[in-house]
Amino acid sequence: MPDLSLVVLIGATGSGKSTFAARHFRPTEVLSSDFCRGLVSDDENDQSASSDAFDVLHYIAGKRLAAGRLTVIDATNVQSEARAQLVRLAREHDVLPVAIVLDVPEQICAARNAARADRAGLPRRVIQRHQRELRRSLRHLEREGFRKVHLLRGPEEIDAAEIVTERRFNDLRHLTGPFDIIGDIHGCRSELETLLGRLGYALERDALGRPVDAVHPQGRTAVFVGDLVDRGPDSPGVLRLVMGMVKAGHALCVPGNHENKLGRYLKGRNVQHTHGLAETIEQLETEDDAFRAEVAAFLHGLVSHYVLDGGGLVVCHAGLPEKYHGRTSGRVRSFALYGDTTGETDEFGLPVRYPWAEEYRGRAAVVYGHTPTPRANWLNNTICLDTGCVFGGTMTALRWPERELVDVPAEKVWYEPAKPLAATAPGGADGRPLDLGDVAGRRIVETRHMGRLAVREENAAAALEVMSRFAIDPRLLPYLPPTMAPCATSRAGTGGETAGGAADEEGFLEHPAEAFAAYRADGVREVVCEEKHMGSRAVVLVCRDESVARERFGVPGGVSGALYTRTGRPFFDDPATTERILHRVRESAERAGLWAELETDWLLLDAELMPWSLKATGLLRRQYAAVGAASGAVFPGALGALEAAAARGVEVTQLLGRQRERASDAAAFTEAYRRYCWRVGAERPAGTDQLAGIRLAPFQILAVQGRSLAGLPHTEQLAMIDRLIAAEAEAAPESGAGPEAEAGAEPQDALSAPAAVPGGGRTRLLAPTRRLVVDTEDEASIAAGIAWWLDLTGEGGEGMVVKPLHALVRGKDGRLIQPGIKCRGREYLRIIYGPEYTRPENLRRLRVRHLGHKRSLALREYALGLEALDRLADGEPLWRVHEAVFAVLALESEPVDPRL
Predict the structure, then answer these.
(1) Which residue numbers delimit the Calcineurin-like phosphoesterase domain (predicted)?
(2) Is 463 part of a structural domain of the chain?
């Protein structure tokens, strides 16, 4: 019997149905009417509860069938009315109903019931009635709708029976390709030969020179989506070639509506000779009877659709919603052949087709044809390959799993179309971003690296607010970076040795020794320490030109990419500034040869954009500059008064000392945030480069056309980035002082001070990322890493990020480990925790930090980011990419200490 079916056991009480079911099926597959009767009444033999019991049974059976689970009904089912409900249930869920009849003599049934305490008093007439109803049913079971009927007579046959499940004809999940899926052909044999040649197939011909097979040297399999015949010049030639490929195992084929009509004609049915059938009939008349018989047999054996590649690919003629994938019914076959219509007709008299692909949200990619369109485009993980070759368009194939399109032009217009070719699906080539139904409520996102991740309803609501009101054009938002967890609280200053063996040093809340120890505990030997820049996290999507942005991402002219924050907001209100930065990155990529080397027309970069004041001006003014200004105003007067009191002999020594320490801490605080502030672009003197002062420090190429690069070792990533930076330096040597010379500002207002800026000229945009590789099991290497960090932060740097040298690293338990741990400098943390955080009493309190939630959040966002990159690289539709992106944004609203 089919592996997905509704199995109905039929037999009188006492015929052994429950025993048979327990022997041949799993307990979860069997639904017993007696058990359901007990559920609703606490008595499995309470016949008054039968109506409610069968309601429960049908409900559970429906849920199982909807989930694609084999379901067995253990009840007498001897009455036609009871069976009719089950046949209807199977049809509702597009599965095959199978009947297994247990025909056991009355005497044996009576003896078995008598041996059961709960059935000992069952009247003999009940068994006799069941037997009469069974006899009346046997001849009509197939007519009732059962696809298969198995009749087992007597205990011997029942005991000897063996259940053998068979794959549905459409279930080819075990075939993983690679495939070349070819759109509607309509008798255009010459174009088909050309297309097969472009795909790498070698044609084989018969003695008359006619193509009868095509073989790919790498073992690829062609898959035809139907409509092989009608309208074109050589339908028999197309059939001969396709049938030969299918027979030789080099191709698969599903039927189109034109094959269905031709098949009915060849069976002698009365069909109208329209829509090109007349031409096919005329062409077939030149062939012999044997060929026509072979065609008829071939068309009769075609299966409505195929599920391939582990369930990730569905091929059919007119499209198929997810609920029909792998199902078998007349309704499924009809949809696969003809699609669905709204019941209306257009101005050309043709039916208006229901836009099922616009609403598709399935995991499997659906590849189909049927509806001519000017060009093949992905829409919500579906793609139509009918590009109207017979109408003078092209013949298109999709390489799978590469998702590459290959097409050849028609040699001529073979058949005038009833209406001009046009994209009919709403959204056209662009598809659409997430809609409310995709993100409202609690969501589960499947990820390849961390399994199923949940998004709470309240977090989804917060993300929706950001995405809908503040984010950039969603077509240019394919990724959001994850948050990053800090290292464990440093033990430096607590009276013991640090994890790296170095002597304790007072005043550290974070120390690299803890990061090295954490990775060593996870089994990671080599880590790379990367300089943490004094800016804001930025994602850069840069296309080779505007046409690439238009074709790949569907954005209007004048846009060649995007530059946005880690919450999806644009960095600059002025699009022209964004385009200038993208132009500079694009130029550098060209000079560095990255476009050609990576075989891509677009790059997605993870970076830091400096200065921090570029995006955080409001935060700096309200929160940090205000503290600096207040301390600058208060402490001079307070210290002066205390010093005067001390001069008069008043005992204020301790108070004066404390206030001097506080003034020193406040000055250090002001100095710390001043390093992140300098003027840029238009704030500078006339004639200055409009990008002057802006520095972009890319540190990772996340993805390119056709692949994610997130798995590359960080040293390889940074080597490519170095080439990018070197290319810019060769094109435009640095003119003028760097940002460090530009940050001279008065403590009262670090944001309004004049900048020491030289004259005009083009300044350099791209900034390098300094790094150091550390061996976590080598004490000397650890000591060098700590010394490097101390030098970096001593110069005023923010700190560093410690990452496993090799990306996508898993721990001993097989789980992902932290992709990066940030270790911030002592002075930078003043900005985060306040001017006086280094005082011993404050450090003792701050050392009690709960990092568990932050670490969990970082890992979940990392897995979601990887999933977005994989889906982007695979060419999946926008809504699928955004599902993961949106989840990252939603997780950002989870409550966590913002100082971490």
Answers:
(1) 178-373
(2) yes
